[in-house]
TrEMBL record:
Stated name of the protein: Tail specific protease domain-containing protein
Key word Signal present: yes
InterPro entries reported for this sequence: ClpP/crotonase-like_dom_sf (IPR029045), PDZ_sf (IPR036034)
UniProt signal peptide: 1-29
Organism: Algimonas porphyrae
UniProt keywords, alphabetically: Signal
Length: 440
């Protein structure tokens, strides 16, 4: 196969626009920003503030009782832990730390400071899994510092700094959880592998051949900012050995920017003669909004088509009346044949990116993906202490139209890793090309 030159739309944005376009999981304010500086003179009643936070959490957190542990018992421990803080900033840090037990990147308390871990998946380049006592690199983000350093899926993650990873993961939950679950260990290890908001990471690995390697990697938050300077959409062409032209549309973390609607329409007009189309959503970790999502899916449907289900547990908790509804996508022009289309995703496909893949699946488009970002539900933002503490919380659960929770969706072709394989090549593009070359 051969490659044609890439084209790009919407190249460089101002810093303000960049910050706004990151969508559901933005890069947090820098430590010296006014929003993240503690007011030492502010009145602070830890017990009253916790009662307010707990009431909203219990009512509105859609996944409160779906994370595999006793939420009531855990939150009682959290209450004792956070109310022991003597300053509001420490109270906020403890609250944020307590959210890690729910293994939900959509859940957090801000504004962040240097003591917080990087926001995942936005400011991350390593995804770590845990099984049978081993912490395994599941995927490495394309273009990142970790990829450039040669880290590959299948490596063992052994040390965070000088500390064995198993000890470090326990400390992430101490003193709230004595024996973390496998999912919690994997989540904590991913936080550790991607480091805190400032500074490089000193990480230890063991390769597939058993070689111990120590690396110092740049902070993945740096790469997250690089992504904001990349084009909204990149178009490239791949000429298959049989002469067919395949267009690849890659979106660079702009699913929260409504300007992408116009940009994507233009990109579609430019690829209408393609023999096949690959929609690449592997670089959309920060989520976005449903207007952008529906605008994209609309190019691949011929009639009004359901694309996701919503459920709002707070209404049943408060009134005893459940609410579930189905959201539809309507056709848009120019149209492209869904049978000649593949959509690909991976661990850096978050929230609205996950929703688009689920919606494209409902529309009959072939899906190829590893596990994705698992940013749960549809989130809302709350504030406490006169706006000094912010709270990001999923208030709706989301489902495929067949009833599968979005976080449990499995693609038509399920990959172990989507950004990189053990050789550093691109497994998702290879699988998509194979599918489009086959007689489907």
């Amino acid at each position: 196969m051969t490659f044609k030159p890439a084209t790009a739309l919407f190249c460089t944005l101002t810093a303000i626009t960049l910050a706004l376009s990151l969508g559901a999981s933005p890069l947090r304010a820098a430590p010296d920003d006014p929003a993240s500086v503690e007011d030492e003179t502010a009145a602070f009643d830890a017990s009253a503030l916790w009662d307010e936070v707990r009431a909203d959490f219990d009512l509105f957190y859609a996944y409160r009782d779906r994370r595999g542990f006793d939420a009531d018992a855990y939150l009682n421990r959290v209450g004792a832990y956070v109310t022991a803080a003597d300053k509001q900033a420490e109270f906020r840090r403890r609250l944020n730390r307590a959210t890690y037990a729910f293994t939900d990147p959509h859940l957090g308390f801000g504004p962040s400071d240097d003591q917080d871990f990087n926001v995942i998946p936005t400011a991350s380049d390593l995804q770590i899994g845990y099984e049978a006592g081993r912490y395994v690199v599941l995927d490495v983000r394309a273009g990142s510092a970790a990829m450039a350093a040669g880290v590959r899926p299948g490596w063992m993650f052994t040390h965070a700094g000088d500390e064995p990873v198993d000890d470090a993961t326990r400390k992430v939950f101490d003193p709230l959880i004595d024996n973390p679950s496998d999912a919690q260990r994997a989540y904590a290890a991913t936080l550790l592998a991607n480091g805190r908001r400032t500074g490089d990471r000193a990480l230890g690995f063991k390769t597939a051949d058993g070689e111990a390697i120590d690396l110092v990697l740049a902070n993945p938050r740096n790469f997250a900012w690089v992504v904001t300077t990349q084009p909204h959409i990149e178009t490239r062409w791949i000429v298959q050995d049989d002469g067919t032209d395949i267009a690849v549309l890659r979106i660079n973390n702009r699913l929260g920017d409504n300007d992408l609607i116009i940009g994507f329409d233009a990109a579609m007009r430019a690829v209408l003669d393609a023999d096949g189309l690959i929609l690449d959503l592997r670089n959309t970790p920060s989520g976005g909004n449903t207007e952008v999502g529906r605008s994209i899916i609309g190019h691949f449907v011929e009639a009004p088509t359901p694309y996701q289900m919503h459920e709002r547990p707070s209404l049943e908790r408060e009134f005893g009346v459940p609410r579930r509804y189905v959201e539809y996508v309507l056709p848009r022009r120019p149209a492209f044949d869904p049978k000649r289309t593949v959509v690909i995703g991976g661990y850096w496909t978050g929230s609205m990116g996950e929703g688009i893949i689920v919606g494209m699946d409902a529309a009959g488009v072939q899906t190829i993906a590893s596990d994705m970002g698992d940013l749960l539900g549809n989130k809302s933002d709350f504030t406490f202490a006169g706006g000094a503490i912010t709270h990001s919380i999923p208030t709706e659960t989301l489902f495929h139209v067949d009833g599968t929770p979005r976080e449990d969706f499995v693609a038509d072709i399920a990959l172990a890793a989507a950004d990189s394989d053990e050789r550093g090549s691109d497994p998702a593009i290879r699988a998509a090309l194979d599918y489009l070359s086959a007689d489907n």
